[in-house]
Amino acid sequence: MSKDKILVIGSSGQIGTELVHSLRAIYGVENVIASDLKLTDQAKEGPFEVIDVMNTTQVHEIVKRHGVTQVYLLAALLSATAEKMPKLGWDLNMQGLFNVLDLAKEKIIERVYWPSSIAVFGPNTPRQNTPQYTIMEPSTVYGISKQAGERWCEYYFKKFNVDVRSLRYPGLIGWQSAPGGGTTDYAVHIFHEALKTGTYECFLSEDTILPMMYMPDALKATIGIMQADADKVKIRSSYNLAGFSFSPKDIAEEIKKHVPEFTITFKPDSRQQIADSWPQSIDASEAAKDWGWKPDFDLKQMTDDMMMNLKRIKKETLIGS
Ligand code: NAD
Ligand code: SER
């Protein structure tokens, strides 16, 4: 039986929905507690707690009651939403992190996973093959909160011996869950619209190249860094992580191989400015060197897999209706 008891906070979002499945397959359903602001269908699949990560007492009580040893903290406001609600973005992204880091500082939990983002980089960062250590002048509330969060993670590791691990995710793409208010969300919506209506209006311009990753690779990296021996995790701020990079035009071309009649139009909105401040590709060599990171999917493999699964679901829904 697993000795680890895991709490995933923000489990009903894009990453949590899939991460909970993967963790339960490894650690057992009863050892992985999903938790989010509201009760969701996840509660039918295994342990679930309604939680507000801002509520220190509630987080403390749930962790103690379940004997939690590891927390995956996913609750946050993403880039586009945080620009609309900057105060909430800052408060949630920082206070949530402190509440969990403090549990580890008090040795109530043993290990913390907290994701950072390519949003820690800014317009003055080298945009190609962005190194682990470089200029970081984020221009979004989200990016500022992630950069500050990284500094606090490293501080808690050095000062209080907190075993915290973190990855700078690129934009994530998966078929099992919807994205929650980011600048890279178009790369998920485009698949659904291609199959539903055969057309998509993109909120980024056709040549906007961004670093992206298929969800199975993100889950592999997340669980990989959490399971790595502590001495292999040398960076305690956050690791650069890379999958592949593409523009809306590139992914539309790839989708056309599956839906030949697919058309795309472009109507950039305020998210364009955010995308223009981020890198186009990431150097993840530190993660490869320290704990063996290697992605499995490129753009073509990801598109083929997304299409296969979304078409299957569509067919099953039609048969079931
Ligand atoms: P999401 O928005 O899809 O999910 C976040 C979840 O947190 C939601 O289910 C929401 O209900 C929950 N939540 C919000 N406030 C809460 C609170 N006060 N208490 C408890 N739960 C609360 O986000 P995601 O895409 O799953 O991202 C998870 C983490 O990964 C975030 O830290 C995000 O910054 C980071 N990240 C995501 C991406 C991506 O492309 N999805 C890229 C880089 C980093
Ligand atoms: N996918 C995320 C966003 O667009 C990057 O952190 O906000």
Describe this structure in words.
This protein is α/β, with parallel strands linked by helices and 321 residues long. It has two domains: 6-170 and 215-240, NAD(P)-binding Rossmann-like Domain (Rossmann fold, 3-Layer(aba) Sandwich), CATH 3.40.50.720; 172-211 and 243-281 and 298-320, Alpha-Beta Complex (UDP-galactose 4-epimerase, domain 1). It is 43% helix and 15% strand. It has helices at 14-27, 56-66, 79-84, 86-105, 141-160, 186-196, 215-227, 248-256, 271-276, 285-291, 299-320, and strands at residues 6-9, 32-36, 48-50, 70-73, 111-113, 116-117, 163-165, 167-169, 171-173, 199-202, 210-214, 239-240, 244-246, 263-266. The strands form four sheets. The chain has a six-stranded parallel β-sheet with strand order 3-2-1-4-5-7, with helices on both faces. Helix 4 (86-105) runs parallel beside helix 5 and helix 6 (186-196) runs parallel beside helix 8. The longest helix is centred in the C-terminal third of the chain and has 22 residues, at 299-320. It is globular and about 55 Å long. The mean pLDDT is 97. Nicotinamide-adenine-dinucleotide is lined by residues 9-10, 12-16, 36-37, 51-54, 74-76, 78, 92, 115, 117, 169, 171-172, 179-182, 184.
